[in-house]
Amino acid sequence: MYLSENKTLRMLTLCGLYLAQGVPWGFVTITFASWLAEPEQGITAEQLGPILAVATLPWSFKFLWGPLIDRFTIRSLGRRRPWIIFAQSMAVLILGGMMLIDDLPTLIWTEPAEGSGGWKVISSLVPGPLAALILLANVFISLQDVAVDALAVDLLAENERGRANGLMYASNYLGTAIGGAGLGYLVSQYGIQAGLAGQAFLLAGIMLLPICFRERPSEYKEINEAEENLQAPVASSLKQETQPKENEKPNSEQTATDGLPAGSLDLANSPYLPPTPIAERALTQSTAETQQRTGKTNSSSNVSKSVFANLFRAFSLRATLLGAVIALGVKIGSGAITVVLLDYLMKKGGWTQAQYTSVIGGWAVMLGLGGSIAGGFLADIFGPKRVILAASITLGTLWISMGSLPGALNNQNVATVLLLGQELLLALLSVSLFALFMSISWPRIAATQFTTYMAFLNLSTTIGSYSAGLLSSDYTATQILIFAGIVQALIVLPVLLIDPQQTRRALPD
């Protein structure tokens, strides 16, 4: 059975793979983080901040995976399938391997390692082997995310994409709930090793989907046939050059990659030769005179330069530049508050790990899902700028209020309202930002520009997590709440100066 031929199987596989992304995210940022924050583990907020930061750091640079996934594959196994299986299997091995470590908190360094400046900086960003394992696991999970997105683009029909995106997004939230509330309950009852084992078995089970079901039937043969049709105009000239003469042995270097499309590697036949575009080889001689006469080439370096030149041009406008500033700053507060609240509630607020994971991994995730759906409708009705301002200023006001009320964080009901309220508002804010960034992206490089905005948002959260560790040593949780609230209300004010139509008006289509 093939994904391209069965709609139900196609949706099930894509949703399952998105659920597999949410499970480790929920486990690391909710279950594992709350377990580390328990007083008996001896982990401070200064140590906890970098642990959460390294979980988000690879997602800030996942756009780097795109060219690699598009360029290389093993055609006999499928176009995207090898990357998905490889990435998820590595994540399973890393996260599952943590079960073999008896005392995980001891793998977190209390101070940066001694040494030269570069090593000292690295050790402060990745404080110990445990942080390195979490970082590496999320590198592979982010790789899986990009590969699954590419698979969806390849397989989904135009009339399926809207429904599929909604189901995939919901599956990711469900995975977060399973990793947060579900595995959190398992950890509270049977210990962290049980949670790690449950996560590994769940991810391994989901990996059976891409292992058992291929993308398309006879993909390798179909691609070769399609390329033969595309190369028909130059087939006769190519035949004279490539067909071995009588009594002449074929050139192994040519036949090793002959028939391979650009962006593929036949690892069974030619593991060392880089893939070469067939059309480029076929047209080399016929276009040589033109290129020599005009001095123009169509090299990949020129294409890359063109993309970067267009990206620089797009960000030269006021609307797009202000959008980048907002993206880099708007999630710093939430990244810091997540660490600060977790540390305070577990150590001073009287919360248990089970209580925290049930709220954050359960009701908060559901509110986030509802807020995401509602945010899309509200952005369409009132415009994304209004929703961004309303959500961000309300969130800032919530933080300032909770920080100003004496003893608010020590009341479990009030603290629960804070946790749920901020999750709802962050979901409204995020979806509205997505809509705005789509509007101000230049259609010519929309994918690259929008991905850049998404990377800035992830980097913003990472910066917030790192800053929490620095702030916690000098300021109280309530002071940080007030400071974060003020920043949150001010950081979105530049949205008033953004003209969503400026990009399309100022730059050509």
Could you state the order of secondary-structure elements as H and E? Answer: HHHHHHHHHHHHHHHHHHHHH
Beta-strand percent range? under 5%
> Helical percent range?
over 70%
Predict the CATH topology of the largest domain: Growth Hormone, Chain: A
Distance between the termini: 42 Å
CATH architecture of the largest domain: Up-down Bundle
CATH homologous superfamily classification of the largest domain: MFS general substrate transporter like domains
**Low-pLDDT windows of residues:** 244-300
> Which structural class best describes the helix and strand composition?
mainly alpha
Task: Report the strand count.
Answer: 0
What's the number of structural domains?
2
Largest beta-sheet details: none
Brief write-up:
The protein is mostly helical.
Describe this structure in words.
The protein has 509 residues and is an all-alpha fold. The chain has two domains: 1-220, Up-down Bundle (Growth Hormone, Chain: A), CATH 1.20.1250; 313-498, MFS general substrate transporter like domains (Growth Hormone, Chain: A, Up-down Bundle). The chain has helices at 7-37, 45-56, 65-71, 81-97, 117-125, 129-155, 161-190, 192-212, 219-230, 235-242, 252-255, 278-294, 300-314, 318-329, 332-347, 353-382, 384-404, 412-440, 446-472, 477-491, 502-506. Helix 7 (161-190) packs antiparallel against helix 16 (353-382), helix 14 runs parallel beside helix 19 (446-472) and helix 17 (384-404) packs antiparallel against helix 20. The radius of gyration is 26 Å and the shape is globular. The two termini are 42 Å apart. The model is unreliable at 244-300 (pLDDT under 50).
